């Protein structure tokens, strides 16, 4: 039934879109020329011409590598990093006789680490490959010939094929629409995957092909399409179709793009014109900008610094080496035992400068242990594991939509712990983007008891009990909350109206008209469930759906739409019975952003012509008739009230048209619609404007875009953490301010600085219409207001400020010479709200903050309009909500709800930041310790390049004995548990201020490493030499000193790790003590191998070290004394100068975490009272009065 | 229904949640690992811990220090530096010339035993400023050749002492062997010769596995320039323990090498005459030569460093323990003082 009914719809008559005819001739003239060379022979897959055209297949590959290119490409990627390149160079040099160690031992760690990194790349690419395979193997119906369709995989689609796509399927390639299940060959398309817009778009085929309704029709269908070459422009298309020896121009109206979805249409037939990588969506996809975290950038600097140190060491060593080598022949230190007179170039005293240069290279090889070879790969492993933790966090899983958090890139984990400014979208991010009809005002009377979040917040702000419309909502709130979940989009409650009670209200006739307008004036399409008889609606926007649902709930059920009528089940006020009424739909005057209103013209059953109109207050009030302004004052009041309550309002009005008037209008309207000139839109607007006047006001609606759950609490927490939150929204200033209060972005005691251009002077100038003057005056005004604001902020040191700026002013504030001032002012304020801002402004503001403050910015948004912002910010967070995937696809991390941001930043961010920074510091520590023992030993071997340790000791240091503990640190360490991270949000400032990765701390760790190296080296050498080493009178030679020193280093670096850890799980015990145990096992196993393999390590443990008490005594001593400096430092620091996490650890340790006084003391630690988070923190106090006493 | 048995009702709802086939297919699985809630010990350096750690270290270190020092002090060591004294007065201006000349270099030294020395008494020579750890020197040997009689030709790493001038392979090749120490010592006490046991002075693993029992010296020191000692071509390398000891290279430029063992007790006041052949050239590079007689303790030879270091660190830890105790008592931690916050100290920003 429903199917048939829909089939008859000729929606093209209702909508004012252009039919395919009359495309611009000059465009079509280009066909066949350069750039427009594609020729598609439809429905001739095997034809001769088709095979000569070698168009891309529909196989889409998103992987970075292919099997063939993986090795060279991935290797290239790896060696692009300076450190890895250095190791490649040392690795190759180690095959020459320059090398102080054997080539194998040097190359194997490199192979291991590069291999690990490549395996990781490979796995990631394999996952992409799996997705590709899934995508390419989706099924679609393809015309096989003779009117028979059968299923085939997407990848088998060829250019020229005819495919049949059914309802809710995705288009497998770019198609030219031939016909659809509708008679006039239209179809609805959802382009969410392309541009994130959820509204349905209409496409229509050429009239000539719209006859195709059966598979059989296609058996001898032939057409030739000539069109442009593949390009990335989604909104333009030029082509022509030769069908039955006639040329028909094609436009984007006939083009169905891959990855968009067929909606509300049972099926369509389409001819494939672009496949695979030629499709517009894939041509359009660019790799997301790869972002690197600040820590990693700094790490590069550290590596350069270490390179500097390394070169210095090598340089000093070479100079010394050159001098002593020269001495061997001429000076007083002729080391005859080296036979200097027959030396090769490397040691030749006669060519000492040359020897020194060669030695320099050797030294570079030898000191390479200063640079942690495993750093990059360890960090990558750690980050992947951290991302898994983020993905797996059960507290960031949203039950309702079945969506866990998803870290799309693991590069930015630690950056999450350093966010200074959050730039947030409002709709869909802070709010649910599901509109709920909550209040309305008819004939000057306000209805609806519903209480919005904003009102609750306002009531809290004023400290007054929550009384709305005479009802106290303090108690009833709960019951109310339970009720609202029953009908989505409808949250209205007023017993004067509900259950048909409205008929008893004084202006029931107006109310009736009001409801009727809601039920008739829209473009929604009903979907009648045959079994239950329930009606659901498909609407272009959530607002519109809310209206239709509201009308239905209030007794005006819109249940059917035909091509020319709208049927509504109405409650008749006189008979109190439901009657079915049908309205003849004559015209739809569509909504657009400049008109800000939409109207329909209908003829009711009595034959009256009605124009029903709804629109924004700014355009509606001026269009009212003189006699239609009866309730204007009250309605305006109510609208303002609603806006203050954070609601979206619309004004509803109507008028009756006379026949003549309508005829005159319709003529002009049809003429305008059918015109082909470029200003067609304006013409339609003009015509519509003429009829949309002298309206009679009915009332106003208020729709709430509900705040997402937990948003105010989350924002409060983030503010307590000292994160600045800027909201960039398209809303009105009043709405934005009130939402600001609702989500605790604006708080009591904050001073507001409002910047707008609504001064009388500018308004006057605008009326005159002198654009230059307006611009000039506006600029001056903005500048002046900014200066004033800055002055205010500077003058007051004890207050927090909030800056509110509207889009127009923002445009001026972002101008080159003013933006610095704007930024300064904005930084001084705790919160900032930009109203009426455009997507580009959002991105510009983001860039301004990012580049102006050099601090980490995080952008969060859910819609396509946020994409620019997300990509511009250091971190882009996408809300995987209702507005499509566009934001998620361009984000770095996606979460389902705004409130998860709290956990993502305060817990995961903080931990990741802490882990990565500790890990990097520790990495440098352990390699400096090791590298410097090698260097010091050099000094005692006249810098000849003799390594202190056996080759394999050297190379396995980073691979086995010290690698796992540091990875465990990076994955598992927690300074304080998640609970305390959230309880003491200020802890987050450690990341923002970057105290854990400051140069001081990094150098401190390196210094610690240097100390350890010196202590170990001198203790070992002084203790071991020159006397007997054991009871048998044997002395300690080269091998024993090396093995002992190495043992000490392993112990020291592992124990240092144990000492620095604040979270000791079983895993850490295993890897730390296991690392040490592994060294002894290795020494045993390696020493047991034949001496040709183990060389200097042969039986060194079994025979020399193990039986000698001296070995153990030296080890214990070296370990304890090397750790003492750090221990003392740490004890003093933790006790007397604790960092914030230290304080929390103390509280936890003292068991005082539930003692409010203690907690407050720590929590109230403000940075400066004026800045961010202060007001939030003062609100968080248990007793606000106390605060006032202090001040 | 279950409400009167709370435990089952709780369990019931729990399981109902997990079994309900709602769309929560992507719900992360709970495990203590993925939720980062692994049981862990969270150590924190409380005063108690700090003080007891320091005390513990000092309690352990001071006795070890005392014992080590005691052991070291029990060792009797006689050191005789002779490189200058063994040059005749008239040659002292040109020591290098003297040592390189073929004249007799016998030199008599007298040592007095200060304290009773129990056997075994180890005899060492100590060289100074001799870079046995020079890379060129260390590498100039062929382990293959030393071990394996069939690998006599494996001298590639031995440059520049791989072959004689006429191309014959040298066994053992390389600079280390070539520069073998060649001073000799003969001890007499009260005109009675003291036997010097020169066996078992090298590491067993070297004798058994690194120096072949069937490898004999060949063409050794046959070049025009003779480095050091010659070897008895009839004795296999594994029996030439002075070579084995020498070839186990020292770690640092000052080193001792075991020369032999005296296996009789020496009494305090005993006068020992040493007749030494001062052959080895350390004069070119200003190296010292010392003859050392030493007993050993369980801790090896005489070196007070370790004992003293233990005592110092132990004492320091004790001192720190005291200091920390006093600080903790006198100046308890002030949690409420915001100036401790590191980012408060540099009020950047604004």
Automatic annotation (TrEMBL), chain A:
What keywords tag this UniProt record? ATP-binding, Magnesium, Membrane, Metal-binding, Nucleotide-binding, Translocase, Transmembrane, Transmembrane helix
Domain annotation P-type ATPase N-terminal: ranges: 40-106
Binding residue positions for Mg(2+): 425, 427, 862, 866
Q: In Gene Ontology terms, what is one molecular function of this protein? A: magnesium ion binding
**Chief place where the protein resides:** membrane
Q: Which cofactor does it need?
A: Mg(2+)
The broad enzyme category this protein falls into is translocase
Can you say what this protein is called?
Answer: Phospholipid-transporting ATPase
UniProtKB/TrEMBL annotation, chain B:
Give positions of region: Disordered: 1-32, 140-163
The UniProt keyword set, sorted, is: Membrane, Transmembrane, Transmembrane helix
User: InterPro entries, per this entry?
Assistant: CDC50/LEM3_fam
Q: Could you tell me the membrane topology recorded for this protein?
A: Multi-pass membrane protein
Name by which UniProt lists this protein: ALA-interacting subunit
Q: What is its main location?
A: membrane
Q: Provide GO CC annotations from the record.
A: membrane
Give the highest taxon in the source lineage: Eukaryota
In the record, which residues are listed under signal peptide? Answer: none
Asked whether the keyword Transmembrane helix is assigned, the reply is: yes
Where does this one sit in the cell?
A: Membrane
What residue spans carry the Low complexity bias annotation?
7-19
What family, per the record?
Belongs to the CDC50/LEM3 family.
Q: Where is the composition biased (Basic and acidic residues)?
A: 140-154
Q: Which residues cross the membrane?
A: 49-71, 308-330
